[in-house]
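**Folding the chain**
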Amino acid sequence: MKTMKTMKTYAMIFILTLSTILVQGQSHKEANSKTTYPTSYNTVKVDGLDIFYREAGPKKAPTLVLLHGYPTSSHMFRNLMKDLSSEYHLIAPDYPGYGRSSQPAMKDFDYTFENMSIIIEKFLGKLNVDTYSLYLMDYGAPIGYRIFERHPERVEAFIVQNGNAYKEGLTEFWNPLRTYWNDYTIANGKALEGFHSLEGLKWQYTHGVQDISKVSPDNWHIDLQHLSRPENNEIQLAMFYDYRTNVSSYPKWQKLFRKHQPPTLIVWGKNDIIFPAEGAYPYKRDLKNVEFHLLDTGHFALEEKGDEIANYISKFLRKNLK
């Protein structure tokens, strides 16, 4: 009898173990059943300029337009696009003078945030993209908010990652830029050139991160390759100077936030000195539907917290897009 009981016990353990393995196997299969889409690399003509862009995901899915910051390009979204391609149609352009897009001479092109927003709006028109959510990072915020200003009905949601729309976010780091805005001289511009040196680029990627080994050094070397083109230094200084027009537009954009109330996901690297967390909180004043996350990382939060951000975006858009 004792032997029979022992055998029954072993049989029950075997059955339970087998059931657990089958359930885990099914869960693993389901977790990996999503179809992932490769990223394609394309160029389209906009006002005679070659605008390079990355694209991934099914075109019938909701569109997320990824707007990069200074001093980088659509390269910053390379991993996020893979992570979200099973659910969303992702488009990430390079602005003129950045990444692989054309760099027209300054005498032929106005390097301003207003003009950049016009080019990107025309770019979306070329791709027949009529409605979209916007991922707004650094320079991508004022470019995206200008597009929103002209066509609020087209914007379904905001994902804001270290992108400012409030003066609270312009702390003492910005003092050299304020000096340049108030006194537009060669000397004051020269003081800002270190931001797009190799050391300055590396600092932007690594300051405030928890584990530098997670940040690929390819980032700053790829950026430097594009920033080292003839006249690009002057282009960056022109954009630095024009940033003052964004600050004066903040009240107008805040009013639009209050009026149109786009659902907004904040995913902000809280250790960023350039756009510190002080600039994240004020969005709550004007927007009612805000999901808010401060992440323990720096300026380029996707480098260290990309998986976490992708997960937040996926859940947020599923919940807020009809």
User: Anything to note?
Assistant: The chain has twelve helices and eight strands. Confidence is low (pLDDT under 50) at residues 13-32. The CA atoms of residues 236 and 257 lie 29 Å apart. The first strand starts at residue 40 and ends at 46.
